Amino acid sequence: MVIRMKQIYQEMPTPSYVVEEKLLRKNLEILQHVCKETGCKILLAQKAFSMYYFYPLIGKYLNGATASGLYEAKLAAEEMPGKENHIFSPAYKEADMAEILQVCDHLVFNSFTQWKKYRKQALAAGKECGLRINPEHSTQDHAIYDPCSAGSRLGIPIAKFEGEELEGISGLHFHCLCEQNVDALEETLQAVEEKFGKYLYQMKWLNFGGGHHITREDYDVEKLIEIINYVQKKYQLQVYLEPGEAVALKAGFLVTEVLELVQNGDTSIAILDTSAACHMPDVLEMPYRPPLFGSGEAGEKKYTYRLGGPTCLAGDIIGDYSFEEPLQVGDRLLFEDMAIYSMVKNNTFNGMPLPDIIAVHDDDTWEVVKHFGYQDFKQRI
Predict the structure, then answer these.
(1) Number of C-alpha atoms within 13 angstroms, CB side, residue 371?
(2) Which class for 109: exposed (0-12), middle (13-18), buried (19 or more C-beta within 10 A)?
(3) At 319, which helix (H) or strand (E)?
(4) Which residues contact 274 (CB under 8 A, 6 or more apart)?
């Protein structure tokens, strides 16, 4: 990384999202190991990572992709042909259904109302259909990402589960986790079995959803394998997982340049050509402090700076970081773990240019696979 920081990243245009093929493949190999040890199927959740330049590579390791709407479904069909293509939506638009049925092989419905509305159409098209269930068991503290919170619109709670309407349903789906280890899955699965276990014997498959940080260093992969094998043997069904972050975790970066240095009282401020609000919105939404290569916590190293973007938003602040040497205008900074939920959520507020998208190959050569200009901004308005 030090060599790359000195050579490769100094040459790249800024701001840029950069994904390293070598790091992406490392994650994919872990996921493929889970598949080989269990016979389960793992899908790419495109909502976290939709850099389709790498879909051919991902398709070599995973079983397909899952979509949250028509456009993601079409992207998977076009860029990962021949692989499984699943879709879930809290409510489908009638105008989209014909096209969805053309590109998807699995459809998951969020309610019995939606299932009854599209049942005849989906089954006539030969599609496998499922229902999203809500185990009503929270294992996390991020309310905005908790589908099991009180009053959630996501999934069918057991009190509303119409067991007599399952003819034509091939599987059940739950998605309740967010950046969590296998202990949260084990706990959630227990709630699923207690409430919906009797229906699992009727199913062809069970989808564990996403939020599994399988490629994180401390994740208990062997325990996951044990759980998958247990469920498949007990209920004689196929288990699916659809991680998003785990596919590209720590495989991407955001390279940026220091544009200006200002002082306000005791606060030293560096204004960058990247924006939290535009280019890494989860920094403000979650919120969280993204890792920055070569930096420390505020006060940990000799020089501390507040890093902010060039927009008019007063709260466009990435965080406070410290460095061994004072920053200079023109310095390159490298934010880590920026492949996930960045390209898919960015925006052009204030007319900010979208970062280039760069792929780094195994031999450390790199290429700009997408450059965004003025017309990209104009056409979005």
Answers:
(1) 7
(2) buried
(3) strand 317-323
(4) 14, 15, 254, 256, 280, 309, 318, 335, 355
Q: What's the pLDDT score for residue 5?
A: 53
HSE of 266, CA atoms in CB hemisphere, 13 A:
2
Domains, the chain, in order of start with CATH, read 2-18+252-338+346-380 (2.40.37.10), 39-248 (3.20.20.10)
How many C-beta atoms surround the C-beta of residue 23 within 10 A? 18
How far separated are the first and last CA of the chain, in Å rounded?
39
The CA-atom distances, in angstroms, between 179 and each of 141, 211, 214, 215 are 11, 5, 9, 11
Q: Catalogue the long-range contacts made by 96-100 (C-beta closer than 8 Å, 24 or more residues apart).
A: 96/69, 96/70, 97/121, 99/70, 99/74, 100/70, 100/73
What are the DSSP calls for 3-58, one per residue?
Answer: HHHHTHHHHS-SSEEEEEHHHHHHHHHHHHHHHHHH--EEEEETTT---GGGHHHH
- pLDDT of the residue at 141: 81
Structure tokens belonging to residue 154: 């996501």
Cα 210–chain centre separation? 8
Question: What is residue 312's three-state secondary structure?
Answer: coil
Q: Which of 98, 219, 119, 224 is nearest to 165 (CA)?
A: 119
pTM of the full predicted structure? 0.96
Per-residue model confidence as pLDDT tens digits over 172-182: 999 999 999 99
Which residues have C-beta within 8 Å of that of residue 219, sequence separation ≥ 6? 181, 182, 212, 213
Residue 300: partners with Cβ closer than 8 Å, 6 or more residues away:
322
* CA–CA distance, 91 with 49 (Å, rounded to integer): 22
For 51-108, the pLDDT digits (tens) are: 999 999 999 999 999 999 999 999 999 999 999 999 999 999 999 999 999 999 999 9
For the stretch 325-350, pLDDT in tens is 999 999 999 999 999 999 999 999 99
CA atoms of 29 and 125, how far apart (whole Å) = 34
User: Residue 201 carries which DSSP code?
Assistant: T
Give the single-character DSSP code of 354: P
